[in-house]
Amino acid sequence: MNSINIKQSLEKNKFTWLITGVAGFIGSNLLESLLKYNQNVIGLDNFSTGYEKNISQAIDDAEKSANKDLSENFKFVNGDIRNIDDCREAVKGVDFVLHHAALGSVPRSIENPIITNDNNINGFLNMLIASSDEKVEKFIYAASSSTYGDHPDLPKKEEIIGKPLSPYAVTKYVNELYAEVFSKIYGLDSIGLRYFNIFGKRQDPQGSYAAVIPKWISSILNNEQVFINGNGDTSRDFCYINNVIEINILAALSKNKESKNQIYNVALNDNINLNELFNLISAKILSRLPTTQIKKPIHKDYREGDVLHSQADISKAKKLLDYDPIYDINKGLEDCMDWFVNDLK
Q: Does 168 participate in catalysis according to the annotation?
């Protein structure tokens, strides 16, 4: 099933989707896309890291694209995944769960492992229980490339992992273990998506835990200093949000029995180092704002808990889910740079 088949399938069938973490970066982009497909969407969030403006913007963008009012297709539940009653309310009548509510960030988990565990493990377990009791068709959840830990081989293959390097990585690995147990004992079909450095519009550039791409764009646009952890040779497999939207829907709609209860890498099987990334971002900004003054980046120490290099083998997702990412980092930055310039300047 490719993007054309996705469109055709969703035009014929109106499902009900639950997006947890709907006010976040990935959640709001999933909301926008599903509303464009005229799907019913329930969103759950407590705004601990997400923003109401992300929901409003997602709905507005979907309505502009569809040229119609879509407000009746969306229901918001202001709740917390750490509260089982909130989870049960949100999952009522749902066909597919797209679970993206979590506390991200390796550094945050090192500073406060208790709250990370509470959200990412206890909250995850609540969602599994609620989804299992409601007998949802499939439970899709955000896993993480941090699960590969200290295993050195590249590209990363789903079945080969090392030891976790942070509390955050521990929580995401425990999610995978719980999902597997629930599939075997309770019959809840699930799919875990190990995300590799996702980027795109509505990604928060603020705070000490901000992702590198929006943070650097914001710094350059506001004539602030850019800091690079390490010597800049650290490399990442950056994946654009549109690829993420595609694989979430593919995972939910797949009729391939082999595809269920599996873990998949979500990336490009490519990487770019941080020095190259800085140059690429700078070039994209200068092509739009030629008078921008770009300061030479300052290199700092490596961050505790970070891996030096990441790159994903995506052959499994291609084979079992027909995942075919069309946005590389250059095309992805080109697609979202205008949004960043208009929103962050």
A: yes
